[in-house]
User: What shape does this take?
Amino acid sequence: MYDTLDKKERAIAISVVKKGADRDKTKENLEELSFLAETAGAEVVEMIYQELVKPSKSTAIGKGKVAELKELIVEQNIDLIIFDDDLTPAQVRNLETELQIKVLDRSGIILDIFVERAQTNEAKTQVELAQLQYLMPRLTRMWTHLSKQYGGIGTKGPGETQIETDRRIIRNRIQLLKEKLDLISTQKEQQRKGRKSMPRFALVGYTNAGKSTLMKNITNENVYVEDKLFATLDTTVRIFDLPSGQEALLSDTVGFIKKLPTHLVASFRSTLAEASEADIILHVVDVSNPFFREHIDIVEKTLQSLNITDIPTILVCNKIDKLEDLDGLKLIEEEYKDCLFVAASKGLNVQTLLERMQEKYNENCKTTSLIIPYSESQRVSWLYKYCEIIERDDTDNGTEITLRVPVDQEEYFANHYKPFIQ
Assistant: This one.
């Protein structure tokens, strides 16, 4: 939608709230919407909110506010109006008729960013699916000039209007994209099975919480980092070493955000599958944001909607270097037991986090001792590949090994190594 070579579109951000709503929260919502617009390539020159008992069915805002907007559009040379909540197709159509400029809602802006940021085939497929599901009910607005019956020679037939034809094409395309995502999901599941032997950790969190920066610190790998919303769309998986020396996998996932369209979350299920199959989840939160508690709640609810609820989690409180009052950390620690404070951009406490990750993973492992006769020495290599070796001693009777067995390998271990357990 936005061409970086052109001048930025000048926008007004609008929030419609119930009478008596928390003004600080409304302001934070508008600032986040402005950040979304900036990420998409627009410049928000005015932020407006209106308190109403309930939004207008025809235009979301009141008649007086529509008149005020008309004046602002001329005075400020505005190109775009962005609403913080989703609008109905009729509201968008009525507003564009009244204001004579483009009107978008939060979902439209998020989708625009996702289209721009999608790099891999999977992400592009997911975004296209979400986009079509968003556009389907809005076709009337987009194709009113084509919505009359065809007529004349060669057009007699079932009598579909153009809009009905478009809806059928989109429905077919949606079905095709869903099938394509199912295939991608199956292929990725096979890839994950191939990596099952390694401990797996997944980063989740509110968008711009610092997940990619933390991943860069933990893995020492070149990971794309940018101070913009949704810098990461495609799941990134990297190998790193736990303090024990054992190799592990860390995946970064798309950030969550309030009012994230449900069809968008559904489209990204295959990407978020990395989190659903992790041994440990690292929930990263920006504690320098005054609304971080709400962000924690949004992430937890989104994970619940994806049925990701029973995986051990470490709450990683990031960006403590941006806090003016460090005394507040004590209160946060009392409120969120076992949380860990880090400053990923400075590398502060990252080693402590690695040690906590090791401890958390060890809690899920069974520690045991074996004696493997030298005649069965080929079995030792499997142990090194799939378990964490704590101690090894080559004795006259064979190889004595103390190790930790991951939960997902316990059944195989019990079936094949039972005779050697001490």
About this structure: Residues 18 and 52 are 5 Å apart (CA to CA). DSSP finds 15 helices and 13 strands in the chain.
